[in-house]
Amino acid sequence: MTATTTPVDEPEQLDPQPARGSRAERVLRGLGPAAAAALSGVLLYVSFPPRTLWWLALPAFAGFAWCLRGRGWKAGLGLGYLFGLGFLMPLLVWTGVEVGPGPWLALAAIEAVFVALVGAGLAAVSRLPGYPLWAAALWIAGEAARARVPFSGFPWGKVAFGQADGVFLPLAALGGTPVLGFAVVLCGFGLYEIVRQVHDVRTSRVLRRGAAAAAVLSVLVPLVGAFAARPLVSDEAEDGTATVAAIQGNVPRAGLGFNAQRRAVLDHHVRETERLAARVKAGQIKRPDLVLWPENSSDIDPFTNPDARREIENAVKAIGVPVSVGGVVERKDGKLYNEQILWDPEKGPTSTYDKRQIQPFGEYIPLRGLIGVFSSDVDMVRQDFSRGSEPGVFTMAGTEVGIATCYEAAFDWAVRDTVTHGAQILSVPSNNATFDRSEMTYQQLAMSRVRAVEHSRAVAVPVTSGVSAVIMPDGTVKAKTEWFTADSLVEEVPLRSSRTPATRLGVLPEGVLVLIAAGGLGWAVARRR
User: Fold this and answer.
1) Which element (helix H / strand E) includes 450?
2) Is the pLDDT score of 95 beyond 70?
3) How far is the CA of 225 from the CAs of 179, 217, 359, 508, in angstroms?
4) 248 and 194, same structural domain?
């Protein structure tokens, strides 16, 4: 008999090796973590609006941590992808409401790749001391990448956007969506570590004090930080108040077909504004200081169509205050813009804001020639919109109003730079009619609530078909409309000019968390070698 030896460069061979078992047994053992990863992803989805079950994000990440603990990066890649699909497929189902399941499934499958890569990293750092810290930073690094690539990114589904009703929300004012999301993920992974430590003590009667302390701190620090950040959230009127009107004119019918009745959409918003003017004249309601129309409230270019211009001017003169009108405008050079137009009752159109973060496959088709080979649906977007280049801040009756049009509310920079350019309140004009009665409108409304706290500004959300809302700086919804109902909201809101730490710091907290993630990965790789 010949003796066998263990090479010194393979020390893991000295550890007890589990019995391999049959192929069927190995498959069954693998199905448990796979199912748990997918279900944990679904649990994270359920924590998002319109539900107010924000706290479900914590067990979702705890379950994900259980799936990944001690596994190799390849297993982490697969389990991360299943978690991403479980989360993103139901979250993004609204993208296929009018165009079928193809775009929806493709988007979810592509975005889940980012989660898969994060899963591989989480598995790699899962044996490091202080595992929850490295894991939470890695998740935020994945969100940072997803918010930037491809096609300028798609940050929909950031963990922070599911926390508008949660106890962690004040952290948005401290460090923006990255710090808010980091706290939630850290707490979730910390919960798993606490459960694991308790289990180890029961089975081995040994308490590893350092690991136990790190687990407890992973839960306590985010909670204590959230309560400590509460004074940053204020509704104080630093610069007086303004009475804001948000107009929801409604559309003839939901879905892509509303574009076929562009004049009717304009007429609806004109009519609702004139109805508001009549109520003001009758003394039934206070005259607003400014009026906000939604995105696409005039898809007929008022600069080239005299009839549309006359209709808008009549409505603006009837209400007698500045109105921000959402239009589709074609310039003399042939470029098309999704534009907000500041319309004065005396001077007419004065200032404009061109949407900067335009939506790929909705407002423009990237790689049009290549994609057109595989699908003729690209022809539905006959002409690509062009991007604006300047932040949108309108001076309306002495109030500085920052504009972030619809999709832009998902991007940190697109909201922040309106505040750094002087915005005292924010407006998020949107057109959700394309997505019918899906959860999209509530997901987007939650984003605006998080932005309100992040920058300590009141936010008005005028939407063509609902749900329009007026949000206070502490994130509470002061008033909102019903779906597919012509209505107007008139509310007094505080004007604020101070800047939160999140506004001042900008991208810095996210950059620090990305560096922490890189450090954890580097340590894990060096330790393995």
Assistant:
1) helix 440-455
2) yes
3) 10, 11, 35, 18
4) no
Q: Which residues of 497-522 are buried (b: 16+ CB within 10 A; e: fewer)?
A: eeebbbbebbeebbebbbebbeebbe
What pLDDT sits at residue 252? 80
Coil/strand/helix, residue 440: helix
DSSP code of residue 19: P
Total domain count for the chain? Answer: 2
Pairing of strands 399-403, 392-396: antiparallel
The catalytic position among 111, 295, 311, 400 is 295
Please name the residue ranges forming H helices in 126-254: 131-146, 171-204, 209-228
Residues 346-405: tens digit of each pLDDT: 999 999 999 999 988 888 777 666 666 566 666 666 788 999 999 999 999 999 999 999
29-33's contacts with Cβ under 8 Å and 24+ in sequence apart are 33/66, 33/67, 33/71, 33/75, 33/79
Domain membership flag for residue 10: no
User: Residues 143, 355, 363, 454: which is the catalytic one?
Assistant: 355
Distance CA 332, CA 355 (A): 18
pLDDT, one tens digit per residue, over 299-313 is: 899 999 999 999 999
Active-site residue, from 111, 143, 363, 406 = 406
Helix/strand/coil for 471? strand
Among 134, 188, 135, 143, residue whose Cα is nearest residue 161 = 143
CB 489 within 8 Å of CB 199 = no
The answer on 281 and 182 residing in a single domain is no
Annotated active-site residue 406? The verdict is yes
In a domain, 14, yes or no: no
Side chain identity, residue 353: Y
Residue 185: strand, helix, or coil: helix
CATH number at residue 452: 3.60.110.10
